[in-house]
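Hi all, long-time lurker, first post. I run a small reading group and we've been trying to get comfortable going from sequence to structure in the token notation. Rather than ask abstract questions, I figured I'd post a concrete chain and ask someone more experienced to write out its structure so we can walk through it together at our next meeting. Sequence below, copied exactly:
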Amino acid sequence: MLHGVSKTRGIWLSFCHPHLSPTESAPQTLHLERPIELYTSHDLEFLFLRLKSADIGWRTDSKPTRKREIRTAHTAQCMYLVEGGRWLLFASNTGCITYFDLDASILTESVLIPDQFDACAKIHVTMAIDRDNDSALLAFNLAVSFCLIDTPPPDPKAQGVQIWRVELALDDQQRGIGLTVKHLASFPLEPSVTNFSCQSIGGPHVALSIGYEDYQQTSIIDWKQADGDQMNYPRRLLHLPSGEIPVCLVFLTTVMIILIKFQEAIHILPGNKLFAVTREGVMIFDYSSILEKTSLLPVGSTDPTITPLWRASNTGTNPGLQPSSISKPFFCSRSIRFSFRERSAVHGVIIDYPYNECPMEPLGRVVKFAEKLDIYTKPHECYGYNKAAILSNRLGAYSFNYTWPDEQNDDTTLSVSLHTEDTFRVCDFGPFLDEQSGRVVVPANVTIKRHRTHDRIDIWDFALLYK
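-- Answer (accepted) --
Happy to help. Here is the structure in token form:
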């Protein structure tokens, strides 16, 4: 009798329910691809037990419970692991976008967007997604940007931004079996644009941190207005005070365009607020008063157009930070949070939301999770809400667990070794971490060649339960 009760759908639904929405001290930790009514008792049991076992496996074992390798038929310029850990996207130097279903028993590559132009050896490609939380099925807008490093593009598609709608494809039993895509918009970039440092998309806007003529700025563009073949689309430009160089970018809500010199990334928050991690510390700005422009700013523009509403200085932020040194934003019920590394310590930022409007009270605060990490080389890294995966040429691959001050968790385990490679991994991006599935994705190419191919990828599962 008890065995039968344990398998009833209502029991597993009650176990999953607390993880389907944020709390005051944690974001949503379980993301569904379909309406919950379509999930059987067995489906819910698997989701809940995998979520719990992912945490156990990460904290108590130094090796993955399963390790697999996949190969892409294209030269991967960048990758993206969709929230939930199932779908891994690749963008190539031909404009082709492919994906793998990492929950499948046999890992095969599927084409989402076919080749769009001839292969370009020296091309920058970036991807970002904006998940549609109002959709009953998994759906997100995908922004893909291309630019050539040092030659004029032979094809306009190789120098521009594309927005696509990606949705879950269902079979006759209403189970997800793949992804479908629909083109929404595209617009060109100036020929002088030669690189990207980061990109983000939110609602009808896309944010690009671009480089041109030895100068950098961030553009936030209404992609619905910009759709077409003209370059005079509206953008909002923002200068930070001299010397305050942001090092992080993710897009959360509406704006038009932002400019900052030599930034690696920024985070746009609801309510016309801008979050930035710079050499001078972490800051919040209000950009709503800045007027729109229809072209890039002149090279060498340095006059500040905005000052921070709040800053936390003396965090010792490392000038060598990359976009991957800062997490995506995490939405709790009463705050927006970030995790980030500076030098040898990991910090968290807690921004009260709705924002504290009292001028006598700070908009946010910084907390410290861990220190003395002994990272001596420039690593590749990925930060989640409670976990981080780090690739370092000196130390191999390893992880951290950390706990926020208001979490009900007495586990203070830090610096748990994930895996050590016999030889160094030479990569340009990754790793990618999904806390829900306990999955880590890392480039597997081990080479000393000047031009690496990034066609081999390792998939590490730390959950004790997997499909």
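A couple of things your group might point at:
The chain has four helices and 30 strands.
The longest strand covers residues 176-188.
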